[in-house]
Amino acid sequence: MKTSLSPGAADALLFDIGRVVIDFDLARTLKAWAVELGSDPSAMMMRLANNDTFHRYETGHVTDAEFFAAVRDVLGLRLSDDALREGWNAIFIGEMPGIGPLLARAAQHLPLYALSNTNDAHVAHFTEHYAHLLVHFRELFLSSRIGLRKPNAAAYDFVVREIGVRPDRIVFFDDLAENIEAAREHGLKAVHVRSSADVAQALDQLGLS
Asked: For residue 183, which of 66, 102, 153, 172 is within the disulfide window of CB 3.0 to 4.6 Å?
């Protein structure tokens, strides 16, 4: 179901970062660690994603060192923390095609915010390498900093309170259907982003030209 938008229908725009502002590909991390991985690295990475340490890392309850120790344990690696961090940050490809001008255009009309599930190592990397994109945002709500992850209800409640406008006056952009559905359940307008064209279309519908 697509969200119906119209000119003047928003007081704030809320963006996910991964695959909405910055593109990434897990295969890049797998390639960086491939020398230590077995014949089915994707299955091994699923074991990591399902590990409680990963979720605690994304809510700021686990340090980089503790997370990388868990990576070594779960995936059977013998890489150093530095090598694991380098591979972990290799996941980033670059800015999503066309998103830079769209953010600049939107920021001329409304305040922009970000809500992203992420971790300290990635935050340190993308805030340095993609500062030219992040400058458009009034505030970044990052899971490892706020202690809350999407699609948990508390994450949306926290952000709505911090932004200080009614949820139905916030338009949220995310690439994952579960996050979109959860946002809509909490009263936000939400746009499922498959490419920057979806962002452009939403801005046009909002009259932000």
From this structure: 172
Whether 107 contacts 136, CB under 8 Å: yes
Q: At 173, phi and psi to the nearest 5?
A: -115, 125
pLDDT in tens, the chain (209 residues): 678 899 999 999 999 999 999 999 888 888 888 655 555 667 777 877 888 899 999 999 999 999 999 999 888 888 999 999 999 999 999 999 999 999 999 999 999 999 999 999 999 999 999 999 999 999 999 999 999 999 999 999 999 999 999 999 999 999 999 999 999 999 999 999 999 999 999 999 999 98
Q: List C-alpha distances in Å: 64 to 13, 81, 144, 209.
A: 31, 8, 11, 42
CATH number of 12-23+95-205: 3.40.50.1000
177 Rama sector, left if φ>0, alpha if ψ -120 to 50, beta otherwise: alpha
The CATH homologous superfamily for domain 26-90 is Putative phosphatase; domain 2 (1.10.150.240)
Alpha helices by DSSP H, 34-176: 41-49, 52-58, 64-75, 81-89, 99-107, 120-129, 131-134, 143-146, 153-163
Q: What interhelical angle do 41-49 and 26-33 show, nearest 10?
A: 110
Q: Residue 141 in contact with residue 120, Cβ under 8 Å? A: no
By the 8 A CB rule, do 199 and 40 touch?
no
The helix (H) or strand (E) run that includes residue 1 is none
